[in-house]
Design brief:
Radius of gyration: 23 Å
Mean pLDDT: 84
Helix content: 25-40%
Number of helices: 19
Strand order of the largest sheet: 2-1-3-10
């Protein structure tokens, strides 16, 4: 890291002397990644200026390495010269939320993560002789029409305005439906088998040899968008629940245990003989339910013979929907999700106020819990039963997906090299700065929670439906919609699915045609 910093400082000096000849374009944006990202509606906190040590910035010892024998992480790209071609990245940002742009830092700020991103962009620029310009705009769910319109208008005009798009997964994948993005597998220099790319997600995203969206260590949302369960230590101790972490290690953190804990934690604090969300204590509170399908290692779609197939009436999938109905509406101590989901602040407030034992959300929600008075810990999502071998997680749909518009095909060589270099540097420098320093040092309160996060990182899964939900009538949110709306009115899943399956299949067929 010392050599890396010396290299950066030398480059900075050279860049100042040659600014007129070799100008790197960056656009100005607000300070980003001051705090971990949470679900896009959450509020921001202030960043830290804690000093970074050499050990904290090194990749984990067990990380795979593609560096050559001299330790050059860019050995495969060294010597590539693109003559200061301009590469423009359209970056999503969510002003007023805890999600922050993962690419557009324009100067060193003293924040460890921000400085790592800034240095990454500068390093890649000088490694490949490219000018990197970042253009930032509101990329939130509520502003999707403007964000998508900007891209579509550019493609329609053929103006080559953007080379790389970083977008909100829940809606950015709709670009594939209009044939507005290229096959990412056609890009030269990019090796998706390397550990800095999310290989499993890319595999689930590939149909007929085409993959239009990718992610990995190039963007930090692959870490803070993964789901975990937070638990209140004070309540756990009061209830004498034992060593919850050991329960996980023993493979006994299951849906039955979560229901048992929830029942034990529930108490009518205001004494009115009913459970009120704003004053009583619950065992489990959340505003979403879709994490359970992935946590139970089940999927609403599979890839068969190279194409996605819906599994909506599969027995294992139906079992999950039936369990959700019973868990959220018939289990003592579980907040009814149709009420707790009215506003995300309801379940978040219940947990931070010490009125919920368990609270599932993204890893990024750590930032919202930083000032919580009660001590808390982090757990993986619970399993279906003890027979399930591993714990699994999913990415919430605000995960960043990266694509390239068809109007930039002529710059494919430079774009591919830039993406690969950014992902490599992200793996070796940005992710360690974020994960080892921000997560482990600032937000997590015990070493056991770190172990639980490491356990979660091993098995984060996504199905085709998860990724392309925005093209399939938001089918990725089916479990949420069923839990929050349909069940509350007394509906049965099988009849609900049967009445809609033709519509969903038609949308899937249309999407498959794009891949063909």
């Amino acid at each position: 890291m010392i050599v890396y910093n010396c290299y950066i400082n030398t480059i900075l000096c050279l860049r100042k002397e040659n600014a007129k000849m070799k100008k790197t374009l960056f656009c100005t944006m607000a300070l980003i990644l001051s705090v971990l990202a949470a679900v896009p509606a959450y509020s921001c906190g202030n960043g830290s200026t804690d000093e970074q040590t050499e050990d904290q910035t090194k990749p984990d010892a067990n990380q795979e390495s593609a560096a050559d024998e001299d330790g050059d992480i860019f050995s495969a790209l060294r010597g590539k010269d693109f003559g200061w071609t301009k590469i423009t990245i359209l970056c999503r940002d969510n002003e007023g939320s805890s999600y922050k742009n993962e690419f557009g830092i324009t100067e060193e700020t003293g924040d460890i993560v921000e400085d790592a991103i800034y240095k990454r962009n500068l390093t890649v620029s000088n490694l490949l002789n490219v000018d990197i310009e970042t253009i930032t705009m509101d990329g939130s769910w509520n502003n999707q029409d403007e964000f998508m319109g900007l891209i579509r208008n550019s493609v329609a005009a053929g103006d080559h305005e953007y080379d790389i798009i970083t977008g909100y997964q829940a809606y950015i994948t709709q670009l594939a439906m209009g044939g507005e993005v290229i096959n990412m597998l056609d890009l030269p220099y990019v090796d998706y088998t390397q550990p800095w790319w999310n290989g499993e997600t890319i595999e689930q995203n590939t149909v007929n040899g085409k993959c239009f969206f990718v992610n990995g260590d190039i963007g930090l949302s692959t870490y803070y968008a993964m789901s975990v369960v937070y638990f209140n230590k004070r309540i756990a101790e009061e209830l004498d629940l034992g060593d919850v972490y050991q329960l996980v290690h023993d493979g006994k953190w299951t849906k039955e245990k979560a229901a048992e804990f929830s029942k034990a934690a529930a108490i009518d604090l205001n004494g009115n003989s009913k459970m009120d969300l704003d004053s009583d204590r619950f065992g489990y509170a959340t505003n979403h339910a879709h994490e359970h399908m992935n946590a139970f290692h089940r999927s609403m779609s599979t890839i068969e013979s190279g194409k996605p197939v819906l599994n909506l009436m599969n027995e294992d999938v139906v079992d999950v929907f039936d369990w959700v109905r019973k868990f959220y509406y018939k289990s003592d101590g579980v907040a009814p999700i149709n009420k707790s989901a009215v506003d995300y602040k309801i379940s978040l407030g219940m947990f931070t106020e010490g009125r919920s034992l368990l609270y599932p959300d993204s890893l990024g929600s750590l930032s919202s819990l930083r000032d919580m008075s009660d001590d808390f810990g982090v757990l993986p999502l619970f399993k279906w039963d003890e027979e399930q071998k591993d714990y699994y997680s999913l990415y919430l749909d605000f995960l960043t997906q990266i694509c390239v518009p068809v109007t930039s095909a002529e710059s494919a060589d430079a774009i591919g090299a830039v993406l690969e270099a950014m992902a490599i540097d992200g793996h070796y420098n940005v992710v360690p700065a974020f994960y080892d320093v921000a997560v482990k040092s600032k937000y997590v309160r015990d070493n056991e929670s770190i172990e639980m996060i490491e356990l979660t990182r091993k098995n984060v899964v996504q199905s085709f439906v998860d990724i392309y939900g925005g093209c399939l009538d938001m089918l990725s949110n089916l479990l949420n919609n069923y839990a929050q709306k349909h069940i509350a009115s007394g509906g049965d899943y099988t009849s609900y699915a049967a009445s809609n399956i033709d519509k969903w299949q038609a949308k899937l067929d249309s999407l498959i045609e794009i891949f063909n």
